[in-house]
Amino acid sequence: MQAWSFVVLTLATLMISTVDAKIYERCELAMKLQKAGLDGYRGYSIGDWLCMAHYESGYDTSFVDHNPDGSSEYGIFQLNSAWWCNNGITPTENLCHMECRDLLNRHILDDIMCAKRVVSTQNSMSAWDSWTQHCSGHDLSEWIKGCDVHLKTDSRKMHP
User: Fold this and answer.
1) CA 14 – CA 48 distance, rounded (Å)
2) 79 strand-pairing partners
3) Under a CB-based contact definition with an 8 Å cutoff, are residues 93 and 83 in contact?
4) Per-residue pLDDT at 154
5) Per-residue pLDDT reduced to its tens digit, 75-120
6) Which of 56, 63, 65, 100 has a Cα at 20 to 30 A from 10?
7) Alpha helix locations (H) across 36-78?
8) How many CA atoms lie within 13 A of 102 on its CB side?
9) 72 forms bridges with which residues in the sheet?
């Protein structure tokens, strides 16, 4: 009975969270990321962020993925509950000092602040396997093509 209550509570929380969810359009997200100061942050371009978010979540703020180790990944940047946020289920370091459910709405400034923490670690963008597999070392200019963003010229460097 206790397990059933937990399942119902979890589903209710996710349903409430997804009411305010959003799937961003690429250029709309590019402008949000630029406004939040991600262009050139730690040497990464808006293209790096767009590419990574595309492969992680499809720009869907409500996306949740469950891992074999019992942790889950949340939101547009798929931030892991074992390290970055507290989902109330799995043990966590909670390095971003936030609830995982707060990563599931259209308001992504908190997601961006947490992602900045991730990129500030030793792993940097390599913390996201999708970035390593699909974005690192590639020409990322296509990700911002047609978007009305004004990029810093030094942020276009390619990463190994």
Assistant:
1) 28
2) 74
3) yes
4) 46
5) 999 999 999 999 999 999 999 999 999 999 999 999 999 999 999 9
6) 56
7) 46-57
8) 15
9) 66
- Report which residue type is found at 159: H
In angstroms, rounded to a whole number, what is the distance separating the alpha carbons of residues 105 and 75? 8
Using a 10 angstrom Cβ sphere, with 0-12 exposed, 13-18 middle and 19 or more buried, the burial of residue 99 is middle
List the structure tokens of 69. Answer: 């180790």
Nearest Cα to 109, choosing from 59, 45, 36, 46?
A: 36
- Tokens 């970055």 -> residue: 84
Structure tokens at 91: 């043990």
**pTM here?**
0.84
Which token pair is 48? 């790096």
Are 115 and 124 in contact, with CB atoms under 8 Å apart?
A: no
- Give the catalytic positions in this structure: 56
Strand partners, 66: 72
Contact criterion met (CB below 8 Å) for 42 and 120: yes
102 alpha-carbon distance from chain centroid: 12
Q: What percent of the chain has pLDDT over 70?
A: 83
